[in-house]
Inverse folding.
């Protein structure tokens, strides 16, 4: 993976340049619920990844419609942007 960073954005891309690129741009805006964009992060060790993200400042989002056997945990970054951590072993 290659990472290119400027003062206002970071771009993630496959090392060979083939495939999708993801640009994370810094903009001022209000939080929108539901969000216009939602990221899913896939991991083989969900508990460890959730613990790591919580230590970095994320918070868990409780949603009353989440099934009890869901393979994902909903988190929010410090600005309230939601994302899921998905367990790929299930």
């Amino acid at each position: 993976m290659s990472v290119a960073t400027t003062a206002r954005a970071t771009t993630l891309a496959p090392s060979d340049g083939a495939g999708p690129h993801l640009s994370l741009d810094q903009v001022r805006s209000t939080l929108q619920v539901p969000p216009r964009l939602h990221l899913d992060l896939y991991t083989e060790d969900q508990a460890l990844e959730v613990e790591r993200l919580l230590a970095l400042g994320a918070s868990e989002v409780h949603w009353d419609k989440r099934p009890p056997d869901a393979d994902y945990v909903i988190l929010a970054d410090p600005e309230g942007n939601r994302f899921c951590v998905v367990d790929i072993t299930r």
In short: The longest strand covers residues 82-87. The mean pLDDT is 87. DSSP finds one helix and seven strands in the chain.
